[in-house]
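User: I'm new to structure prediction. If I give you an amino acid sequence, what do you actually give back? Let's try with this one:
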Amino acid sequence: MDLTVEHLEGTAFQKSRAFSPAIVTSGGRIVWLSGQTATQGLDGRDISWDFEAQVRTCYALIDRTLRRAGGSLASLVWTTTYILDPRHGDRLVALRAEQFPDGKYPCSALLTVSGFARPGILVEIQGIAVVP
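Assistant: Good question. You get back a string of structure tokens that encode the predicted 3D arrangement of the chain. For your 132 residues, that looks like this:
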């Protein structure tokens, strides 16, 4: 069975917040992704307490995992993002939009939490993807 993915058109608000209201898939395999956090960049540099670097690194790690499963970041249909500081919400939206330049955003939830497992972590991103 071939994989089909349909991103339902979002409202202006949904587009401005870089998420899709719904995605309909047929065929393919579902990939359930564990939450990604990062206090070290891909280059080994310490990124503790660096929100933007952590978000970009989390998405890069998710992309790496999805490529191992036969997909890519574009295969994401759902993300749940946890942030430590609600003031990072708007920046998270802008960083998420950068990851999906074609405007085909995953569905998503954004939650603020009171803490993470290790000091220096500011964000965790988990997801669900559908790959061929």
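You can read the tokens as a compact description of the fold. Here is one thing that stands out. Strands lie at 4-7, 23-26, 29-36, 76-83, 107-112, 123-131.
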